[in-house]
Design a protein that fits this description.
With 239 residues, this protein is of the alpha/beta class. The chain has helices at 8-25, 40-51, 79-86, 107-120, 157-163, 182-186, 201-209, and strands at residues 2-5, 30-33, 61-64, 66-68, 98-99, 126-129, 151-154, 176-179, 190-195, 227-231. The longest helix has 18 residues, at 8-25. Bound molecules: fructose -6-phosphate.
């Protein structure tokens, strides 16, 4: 696991450039994508690169990490809406090649097929991750088994509190989500985790200390051969 400390802007440029480089080398690559505040700068840079013709997403396939249970993709708080709004609607991607777990209808049927669908698409080349203050990645909260595949998860109290900023009241935050599991994430060939701001410092310090434990889900990444963590000064680990 490599940790790179730089400004948020520099990290957003470097990570976008890595993704652009991959697409230009392998036009039908598979990207694993996250929502939340953290990847927004990278997505903005990808939109700009698409608009200036630096890259084409025409054959790219994407799989998102998670979706709130019970929210339709048209709901402004859903992660499908977030992805359309912040990335897919502004690049030349085929929407049929974009996958976000379904949180409605036969979501269980969809869950059962999600990991196979990723595998059949060639497997994730680069997985983008944020991290929760409690060490969650996707919605794998503390205690999630390391061999978990896509499943329905209960959100931790701290995650509901953290995510309330996107809703008009904390009571509106769904308490469950469909999420790729820890094993699903570990199957990616390359993983890039981003963390910005002092509220992530404690989690990054714990992650880089190196103890692998189900109590701190992100620690599973220590066992992956190709993980790079990009942090700004505020989120940089305590020595
Ligand atoms: C979102 C996701 C979550 C977030 C995490 C950090 O798809 O999987 O694990 O990455 O909650 O969220 P932000 O970036 O809003 O701090």
């Amino acid at each position: 696991m490599k940790t790179k400390v730089m400004s948020k802007d520099a990290a957003n440029i470097e990570v976008a450039d890595i993704i652009i480089g991959l697409i230009n080398e392998k036009s039908d690559c598979v990207l694993g994508l996250a929502t939340g505040s953290t990847p927004l700068g990278v997505y903005k840079n990808l939109v700009d690169a698409s608009k200036t013709g630096k890259v084409s997403f025409k054959n790219v396939k994407t799989f998102n990490l998670d979706e709130y249970l019970g929210l339709e993709g048209t709901d402004k708080h859903s992660y499908r809406y977030f992805m359309n709004h912040n990335l897919f609607d502004s690049i030349d991607i085929d929407k049929n090649n974009t996958h976000v777990p379904s949180g409605v209808g036969d979501y269980q049927g969809h869950i059962n097929k999600y990991d196979d669908h990723i595998k059949e698409s060639g497997g994730i080349d680069i997985q983008i991750l944020g991290i929760g203050t409690d060490g969650h990645i996707a919605f794998n909260e503390p205690g999630t088994p390391f061999d978990s595949l896509t499943h329905v998860a209960d959100l931790a109290e701290s995650t509901i509190r953290d995510n309330a900023r996107f809703f008009s009241s904390i009571d509106e935050v769904p308490t469950k989500a469909v999420t790729m599991g820890l094993k699903s994430i570990m199957n990616a060939r390359k993983i890039i985790l981003l963390a910005f701001g002092d509220n992530k410092k404690e989690a990054i310090t714990r992650l880089t200390k190196g103890t692998v434990s189900v109590d701190f889900p992100a620690s599973i990444l220590i066992n992956h051969p190709d993980v790079t963590i990009y942090v700004d000064e505020e989120a940089a680990p305590n020595k």
